Recover the amino acids of this structure.
């Protein structure tokens, strides 16, 4: 019965898509020749019958293209956006094939290229909107308890807990979780009813009308996978495998496909593609503006540093940044020129005798960091990110703190999530790493703007800035 309903839904959706595609073709003809233009060379519009002839190849081509891009598979667990992308791809392919048909089959008839452009835009937008409306109506019905599919989770631990929690967060997916099959102690972590052990799976499938099975085994349970699949057998159920990546993934993991091969990536920086471009634009725009606004202050501080003690105005100190690359970070000099001759690289302390009188003030107000705006504009640093450390300290930190080097998956920053929450200077390294990784995992342009706003709002003074 369920299969029959699914096939009926699929056929109705296909018919609705094709009716809409045909209407878009006629609308494109009307827009071009009777509404928007551009002006016609021949004052008489081409006859409608020439364009009606194209309806048959259009419906055939779009029907094949939509099926090619798998637009009629169930998308309970999918997103509107992914469907819109597939619709756009299918429409683009359809238009290219249609142009080829017009060129080689209908040689004697000249078709308007403007009509083709209008048709491509209309078909993509109209089908996407109608499908989004249809999906939203289904989600409303599912939230009300209709159009449900019964599911069980096989496994326990992290994977089972995550999928059970996700299904509870998304009642609009229309998946009613009956319970968990597996080890009873691990199943208790999921918050779902325990239905029985692995050995009870076959009996449970016979007893309940299950339509979805989520196989969510932990690493040490993977040996059970052949047995689980054998117990499911040829039952007409949908099987989803939830891989146990929760204990392995460290930054921005996910799944992608390469030439039909699914690849689970466990570690990835969020800053790639357009994200990288947007962050760089923010750095350049806001960094340049900050440099212009603080230029008078920079000039005054430079003179003050020069007059306060012998030595250079600026200190170029080696720090570790993106992907472990080293760069020269600029700071106003706040210590004696021979500060590390006797001690070597050491961590600054609260009453550090190496500081100059002016240097203590600059450090307390974080004004010694202002020259790093030049590092930001040059691309060594970002306005927001984990604070860079000296390589000699990094080698010690990475031995003491597993995962410390992951903070170098993004550019170092002048300010950061850890800093505005008080974890800077001689404070807990564990907490700083925790906050830095939190920032990287949840990065967004809005998050950067929030950190910048809080940096300005809270000021630059911190009890650990010395």
């Amino acid at each position: 019965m369920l299969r029959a309903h699914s096939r009926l839904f699929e056929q109705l959706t296909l018919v609705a898509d094709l009716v809409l595609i045909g209407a878009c073709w006629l609308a494109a003809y009307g827009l071009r020749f009777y509404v928007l233009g551009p002006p016609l060379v021949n004052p008489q519009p081409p006859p409608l019958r020439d364009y009606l002839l194209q309806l048959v190849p259009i419906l055939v081509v779009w029907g094949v293209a939509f099926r090619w891009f798998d637009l009629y598979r169930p998308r309970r667990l999918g997103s509107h956006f992914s469907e819109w992308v597939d619709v756009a791809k299918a429409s683009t392919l359809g238009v290219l094939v249609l142009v080829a048909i017009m060129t080689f089959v209908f040689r004697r008839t000249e078709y308007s290229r403007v009509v083709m452009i209008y048709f491509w835009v209309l078909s993509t937008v109209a089908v996407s909107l109608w499908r989004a409306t249809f999906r939203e109506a289904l989600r409303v019905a599912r939230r009300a308890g209709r159009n449900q599919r019964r599911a069980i989770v096989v496994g326990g631990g992290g994977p089972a807990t995550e999928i059970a929690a996700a299904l509870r967060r998304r009642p609009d997916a229309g998946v009613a979780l009956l319970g968990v099959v597996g080890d009873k102690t691990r199943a208790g972590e999921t918050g779902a009813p325990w239905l029985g052990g692995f050995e009870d799976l076959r009996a449970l499938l016979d007893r309940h009308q299950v339509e979805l099975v989520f196989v969510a085994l932990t690493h040490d349970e993977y040996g059970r996978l052949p047995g689980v699949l054998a117990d499911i057998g040829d039952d007409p159920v949908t099987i989803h495998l939830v891989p146990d990546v929760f204990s392995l993934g460290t930054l921005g993991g996910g799944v992608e496909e390469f030439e039909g091969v699914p690849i689970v990536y466990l570690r990835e920086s969020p800053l790639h593609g357009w994200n990288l471009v947007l962050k760089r634009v923010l750095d350049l725009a806001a960094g340049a503006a900050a440099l212009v606004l603080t230029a008078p202050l920079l000039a005054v501080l430079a003179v003050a540093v020069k007059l306060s003690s012998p030595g250079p105005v600026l200190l170029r100190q080696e720090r570790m940044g993106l992907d472990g690359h080293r760069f020269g970070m600029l700071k106003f000099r706040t210590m004696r020129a021979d500060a590390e001759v006797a001690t070597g690289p050491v961590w600054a302390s609260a009453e550090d005798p190496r500081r100059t009188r002016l240097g203590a003030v600059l450090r307390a107000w974080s004004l010694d960091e202002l020259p790093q705006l030049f590092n930001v504009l040059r691309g060594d640093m970002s306005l927001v990110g984990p604070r860079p450390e000296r390589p000699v300290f990094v080698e010690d930190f990475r031995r003491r703190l597993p995962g410390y080097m992951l903070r170098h998956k993004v550019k170092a920053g002048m300010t950061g999530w850890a800093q505005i929450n008080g974890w800077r200077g001689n404070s807990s390294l564990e907490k700083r790493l925790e906050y830095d990784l939190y920032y990287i995992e949840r990065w967004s342009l809005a998050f950067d703007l929030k950190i910048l706003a809080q940096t300005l709002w809270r000021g630059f003074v911190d009890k650990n800035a010395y």
